[in-house]
């Protein structure tokens, strides 16, 4: 008996494809052909990550996303509100809150004024908090957007929403969409790399998953210590020749199965094995910062041998120099429910110098012009105070989805611009609202991709990163 005819090996695909029943073939063609087309195309391609042409000429070739997970307080870093200081200790007016729900505080909680001094910097005159002294030096190179709004007010859904355009796991992330639309330029490194330097990520791997896209578009997480990827080093007794012969045999078997199944996951597996083989040489060289000058390490404030946000930023620059398309750096720990001032001092102390150094480093190397840098969290913090003895919190701020701040730099973004405005208490956006879907649409636009045309057919309909929303924020484009 042919092994394919064994009961355990018979699937619906075999039935429709090989049973010879014309009705089945007609049904399959009419119901599933459109859904299968992009997957078959990917599976037939010898290199599913081969570079692809953008929809139009891009301004950015690559993205470094500095994700401040936990949500920094915009009111203490970027969005200075003297009126909020005057209201400190007084309940926020009912006309402002409009029945809004919060995670851990009553809507009528007392206001909490800015915890730090602000000053204007650069020729642009942008106001920056005193706990961001390094960013203040490059303020004319960044665009500060004070009018971001999200639909989610808890960490995991909001993080996943910002990254995938949907609040639940299962959708492709921005890095996955970018790689799907443009392919990869790096031959010896993944197209989409993820690093984490904080205390964990609420949304987990759903933030960089490829969702329903083939898995070769997923982000590859690099570790902070030791081998960047587990098992990238060959075990004792396995030399390069033996490993190459083994991979060639596995690849040949997978190629035969791919020809039968037309399953894109088999193509993903082949590509993953080959990438893992190349990473054995490229990854150790990438992670070794000994070739960086002392001046560069000092500029970032990085110890080449110790994990840190600064070290991750240097690695991100090294990755994009080697053709990596999309880099996510997650720095978890900004969730300032208690002692928001102390939280900000600690996190700004760990990240501010490196963020500014990344801008300077990219600029002096001629990379900032076509590298988009994004900084921000999943939502903002409330103008009201969070103090709850039962929970052990005091002088903190709760989650606030209605208005928060992000900044961008390079890659076609207008430098030295402060965009958007919130009301006098920093509660609602009153000028130039930018929804999370608008952020996503703008990122894709800068990469040369039309967010309405970049689609993937799954479960009977065409999906996109921005779902059925989103607009390009043209006012912030250079």
Characterize the structure shown:
With 478 residues, this protein is an alpha/beta fold. The termini are far apart. The strands form five sheets. Strands 1, 4, 5, 6, 7, 8, 11, 12 and 15 form a nine-stranded mixed β-sheet that branches. A two-stranded antiparallel sheet has the order 2-3. Strands 9-10 form a two-stranded antiparallel ribbon. It has helices at 12-18, 22-44, 74-77, 82-86, 94-97, 133-137, 155-164, 174-182, 240-261, 264-287, 294-300, 309-321, 340-364, 436-446, and strands at 62-67, 118-121, 126-129, 142-149, 192-196, 220-221, 326-330, 371-376, 380-388, 393-400, 404-409, 417-419, 421-422, 429-431, 434-435, 456-458, 461-463. It is globular and about 70 Å long. Helix 2 (22-44) runs parallel beside helix 10 and helix 9 (240-261) runs antiparallel to helix 10 (264-287). A hairpin with a 4-residue loop joins strand 9 and strand 10. The longest helix is centred in the C-terminal third of the chain and has 25 residues, at 340-364. It contains 14 helices and 17 strands.
């Amino acid at each position: 008996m042919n092994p394919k005819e064994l009961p355990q090996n018979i699937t619906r695909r075999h039935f429709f494809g090989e049973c010879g029943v014309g009705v089945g073939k007609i049904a399959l063609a009419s119901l599933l052909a459109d859904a299968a087309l992009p997957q078959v195309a990917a599976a037939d391609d010898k290199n599913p990550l081969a570079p692809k042409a953008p929809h139009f000429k891009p301004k950015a070739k690559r993205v470094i996303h500095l994700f401040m997970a936990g949500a920094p307080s915009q009111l203490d870093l970027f969005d200075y509100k003297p009126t909020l200081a005057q209201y400190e200790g007084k309940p926020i007016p009912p006309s402002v809150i409009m029945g809004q729900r919060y995670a851990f505080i009553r809507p009528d909680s007392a206001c909490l004024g800015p915890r730090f001094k602000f000053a204007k910097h650069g020729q642009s005159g942008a106001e920056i908090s005193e706990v961001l002294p390094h960013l203040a030096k490059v303020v004319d190179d960044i665009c500060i957007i004070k009018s971001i709004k999200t639909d989610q007010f808890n960490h995991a859904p909001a993080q996943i929403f910002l990254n995938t355009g949907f609040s639940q796991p299962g959708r492709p992330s921005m890095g996955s969409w970018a790689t799907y639309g443009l392919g990869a330029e790096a031959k010896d490194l993944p197209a989409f790399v993820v690093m984490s330097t904080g205390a964990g990520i609420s949304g987990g791997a759903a933030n960089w998953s490829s969702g329903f896209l083939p898995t070769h578009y997923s982000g590859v997480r690099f570790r902070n210590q030791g081998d960047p990827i587990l098992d990238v080093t060959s075990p004792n007794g396995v030399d390069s020749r033996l490993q190459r012969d083994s991979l060639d045999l596995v690849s040949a078997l997978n190629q035969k199965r791919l020809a039968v199944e037309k399953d894109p996951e088999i193509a993903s597996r082949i590509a993953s094995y080959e990438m893992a083989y190349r990473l054995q040489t490229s990854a150790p060289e990438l992670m070794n910062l000994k070739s960086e000058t002392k001046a560069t390490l000092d500029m970032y404030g990085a110890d080449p041998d110790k994990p840190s946000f600064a070290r991750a930023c240097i690695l991100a620059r090294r990755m994009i120099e080697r053709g990596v398309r999309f880099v996510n750096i997650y720095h978890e720990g900004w969730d300032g429910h208690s002692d928001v001032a102390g939280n900000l001092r600690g996190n700004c102390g760990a990240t501010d110098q490196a963020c500014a150094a990344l801008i300077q480093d990219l600029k002096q190397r001629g990379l900032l012009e076509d590298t988009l840098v994004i900084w921000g969290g999943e939502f903002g913090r409330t103008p009201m105070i969070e103090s709850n003895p039962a929970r052990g919190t005091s002088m903190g701020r709760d989650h606030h989805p209605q208005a928060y701040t992000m900044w961008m730099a390079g890659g076609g973004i207008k430098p030295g611009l402060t965009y958007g405005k919130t009301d006098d208490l920093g509660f609602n956006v009153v000028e130039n609202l930018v929804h999370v879907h608008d952020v996503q649409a703008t990122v894709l636009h800068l990469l040369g991709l039309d967010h309405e045309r970049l689609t993937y057919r799954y479960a009977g309909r065409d999906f996109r990163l921005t779902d059925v929303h989103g607009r390009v924020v043209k006012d912030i484009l250079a």
